[in-house]
DNA sequence: ACGGTTCAGTGAACCGCTTCACTGTCCTAT
DNA sequence: ATAGGACAGTGAAGCGGTTCACTGAACCGT
């Protein structure tokens, strides 16, 4: 029997004011200092607190920011979510975190759900940046995209993936690797992500013999994908488009008794905190997660507060060398041609 | 200029029915099959979808389940959150994930916030299970607690921490360890968690020389806490009350050039997926996260649907031996007394 | 003394849906 | 034939805030 909470009308009655006045007073607008004090006191007395749902219905705003993650199984995205969540709270906003599970259809549904929840803004790491509904969505609320650019967003924190890919592949090529497997989280349903295109282009430029395989972020699943490729095509190096996936390669290598980097070199992409703890440490492309968090929070807060100018922050990567990449062994036999 | 969405009244007009009838029809109550079809068709035609906010205000229900995590920096809690989020979606509900950052005060605020959001139920991993507001909260909505028991909850998935602690400490004691440091995520503000009490009791029973230190889940912070203790009191073994914290010990050991388990044995508590990947693998207490997720989802769904009977699921741990614990070296000199 | 501003505060109409109490109708049992 | 139920559907009152258009009063300079 939870006793009913006080409503604004009761506060109004208690202070002898109109509900409207109370509403204004509590938000610090249009009323005298003195009334404001009186209202505050009465509200405290009655234990009154505005109902966020009613408020959202009436005003169309909630103070919440939606955070739609492409795949929360990716540890890096988990870190990002936690960081953003914290960053927003410092701005007196709070985040609603949703997970699209790598499924573009679910991504669409959830994005709409968030809009319906009246979030003041949406931060998204798109699974499918090319999906048409983004444009529509961007018209009805401020959207900040992380990773890939989206048409019509209020802001974006984009990764210079071209540079990131170059960094990674040049590192590999520079150490003499030729046959490299690329594990990407790309779904079959969303081919041709910009990042993948870069891989192909760079591989071509560097004369690498590339094999692209898609792998999930989930450790168990990534492990079996890695197991498959390590035991069949036996590449000299594996470049993973997420540290999470690289962890799967470590696990698979362990299962197969392969040594890293002795038998196979591994590169990641993210720099998740755990990557430095592995043995050997994972050589990866560092995207400065703190910088991304700060930028995203700043952009969305500004956009939600009405600052409309589209802003773009480009994140530059750095190579974080640790120990999972070694010089390629001299070619056992000349290239097969 | 996002064109306004259709409302229930427009659907009513289109079908020649009253808004009430439409409302009922869309929820499959009290109307003839034929009307239902007609309404469905019109709704689809107009692209109508019920506004969740208005619905929540009017009905007091949302279909959402709140998930309040004690500290999302704990990787295990992250995994749990992701699992629960997924499990709920399969039940056509969706989770609102919040993070108390290990702060009891924030925990209180967020719990209330969730109640105000009209969540149909709340899953919580309490930072401070002894806080008085829980009892109150449990009266106004179904609560399922994970980890520590809460008075008045609709359900709980409790860990048999007594057993877990026994498992861990007996393992250590059995290998000859005497001086063991215990790193717990306990906040200074919430002493005497049941788990800590068990540690003290068991240590006493096993004749261990215990030093309890609190450490955060965050890798960097955990590392420095571990660094401190490893370099000052140099215990033979460290028992961490969360795998996340154990990761900090690994990092600190690396910094100090200590070998695990040669110089110091390490035990975790959780069994996070990454624990098996470290070198050496982290010996830990496995709580079967999948089982917990399933139980929690089942309990909260049942409770939210009105099943009121209080249910309790006790989770039993198993020891997962990997390689981070070794036989203690023979005492360098007899016990100091 | 007078029109013109400001300022504090009011009433009532929403926001979009749910739900309660009620009206007809048609069917069935007596 | 008639009381009694079921059933389909309606009207209007909310849910608890916000906001728009407006009213008085006080203050301004001239």
SSE layout:
The structure is a homodimer of 337-residue chains.
Chain A (H helix, E strand, L loop, with lengths): L7 H8 L3 H8 L6 H14 L5 H8 L4 E6 L5 H16 L3 E6 L4 H13 L4 E4 L8 H8 L2 E5 L7 E5 L1 H14 L4 E6 L9 H13 L2 E6 L4 H14 L4 E4 L2 H14 L8 E3 L16 E3 L2 H16 L6 E5 L2 E3 L17
Parallel strand pairs in A: 1-2, 1-3, 3-4, 4-5, 5-11, 6-7, 6-8, 8-9
Antiparallel strand pairs in A: 10-12
Chain A binds a DNA duplex (30 and 30 nucleotides) through helix 2 and helix 4.
Summarize the structure in short:
Chain A is of the alpha/beta class. Helices cover about 45% and strands about 15% of the residues of chain A.
Care to describe what's here?
2 copies of one chain form a homodimer. Chain A is α/β, with parallel strands linked by helices. In chain A, 43% of the residues lie in helices and 17% in strands. The first copy, chain A, has 12 helices and 12 strands. In chain A, the strands form 3 sheets. A 6-stranded parallel beta sheet of chain A has the order 2-1-3-4-5-11, sandwiched between helices. In chain A, helix 6 runs parallel beside helix 7. The longest helix of chain A is centred in the N-terminal third of the chain and has 16 residues, at 75-90. Chain A is elongated. The A-B interface holds A 1-2, 49, 51-54, 56-57, 72-73, 75, 78, 82, 85-86, 94, 96-99, 101, 112-113, 116-118, 139-140, 219-220, 247, 250-251, 254, 273-274, 276-279 and B 1-2, 49, 51-54, 56-57, 72-73, 75, 78, 82, 85-86, 94, 96-99, 101, 112-113, 116-118, 139-140, 219-220, 247, 250-251, 254, 273-274, 276-279.
């Amino acid at each position: 029997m939870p006793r009913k909470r006080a409503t604004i009308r009761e506060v109004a009655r208690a202070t002898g004011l109109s509900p409207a006045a109370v509403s204004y007073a509590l938000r610090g607008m249009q009323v005298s200092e003195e009334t404001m004090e009186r209202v505050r006191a009465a509200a405290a007395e009655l234990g009154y607190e505005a109902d966020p749902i009613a408020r959202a219905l009436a005003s169309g705003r909630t103070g919440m920011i939606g955070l739609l993650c492409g795949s929360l199984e990716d540890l890096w995205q988990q870190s990002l979510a936690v960081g953003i969540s914290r960053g927003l709270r410092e701005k007196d906003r709070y985040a609603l975190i949703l997970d699209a599970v790598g499924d573009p259809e679910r991504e669409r549904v959830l994005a709409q759900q968030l809009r319906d929840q009246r979030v003041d803004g949406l931060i998204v790491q798109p699974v499918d940046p090319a999906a048409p509904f983004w444009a529509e969505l961007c018209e009805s609320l401020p959207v900040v995209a992380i990773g890939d650019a989206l048409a019509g967003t209020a802001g974006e924190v984009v990764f210079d993936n071209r540079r990131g890919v170059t960094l990674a592949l040049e590192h590999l090529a520079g150490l003499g690797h030729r046959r490299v497997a690329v594990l990407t989280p790309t779904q079959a349903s969303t081919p041709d992500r910009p990042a993948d295109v870069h891989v192909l282009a760079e591989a071509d430029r560097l004369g690498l013999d590339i094999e692209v395989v898609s792998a999930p972020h989930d450790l168990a699943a990534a492990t079996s994908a890695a197991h498959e490729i390590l035991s069949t095509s036996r590449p000299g190096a594996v470049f993973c488009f997420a540290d999470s996936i690289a962890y799967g390669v470590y696990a698979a290598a362990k299962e197969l008794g392969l040594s890293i980097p002795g038998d196979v070199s591994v590169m990641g992409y993210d720099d998740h905190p755990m990557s430095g703890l592995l043995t050997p440490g994972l050589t990866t492309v560092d995207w400065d997660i703190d910088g991304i968090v700060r930028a995203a929070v700043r952009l969305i807060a500004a956009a939600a507060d009405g600052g409309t100018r589209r802003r773009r922050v480009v994140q530059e990567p750095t190579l974080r060398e640790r120990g999972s990449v070694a010089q390629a062994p001299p070619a056992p036999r000349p290239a097969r041609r």
